[in-house]
Amino acid sequence: MKVLLLAVCAQTAAAFSAGYLSQLNGAGTNGATATMSPAFVPQQQVATQQAGPSDELLNLISQQVSVELMASQAYMSASIWFRSRDMDGMAAWMLDESDEERGHGKEILEFAMKSHFPVQLEPLAAPRSDWNSPEEVWETILALEQNNTQNLLAIAAAADRCGQFGVKAFLDPFHVEQIEAEDKVGGILAKVRGASENLLWELDNQLGIEAEEEEHH
Predict the structure, then answer these.
(1) Whole-angstrom Cα distance, residue 40 to residue 161?
(2) DSSP secondary structure code for residue 63 in this structure
(3) Could you read off the pLDDT of 154-179 as tens digits, one per residue?
(4) SS3 of 152, please?
């Protein structure tokens, strides 16, 4: 009797082991494929995440340094336009923004150098300077900020595709600043459109005060 019981137990254990191993190999007792555990990460995916930055990402980061410098020049050109028309408040505000855009370019350059990403500066085309009204100037600046937002989002998407999450983390403050910049410039443009001469000069004075306060921070 003991011999018979031991034989039955051995057969049961063997059957359980065979079924368990079969499930691990992808086939259940009914021939269906076993479900992969959510915690399991395929080796191929791990290798992709650790493969390093893609050429697309490297090119976009390199280009963005020049994009920020071009934005700086565009703001400076707007500052010159306002200054030549005695709108010193808007001129000062634009000049501060020019410095900020140049600072962004330097931040991205520093990040690229520390990350051992190649950077190739591109020729900077002369910015626009032939505006006919303050409204046209602010329209140009808003379009500039909207374009820069899309450029930064493109870099983040490229970083996501090749698993460069450090790049995405670095860009987070830039995304927040772009939201604020578009909101600020869009608000000013709304005030400038259809504004009377007196309201325009009042806005010029307000922006001058903002620029002065920014310099003391």
Answers:
(1) 20
(2) H
(3) 999 999 999 999 999 999 999 999 99
(4) helix
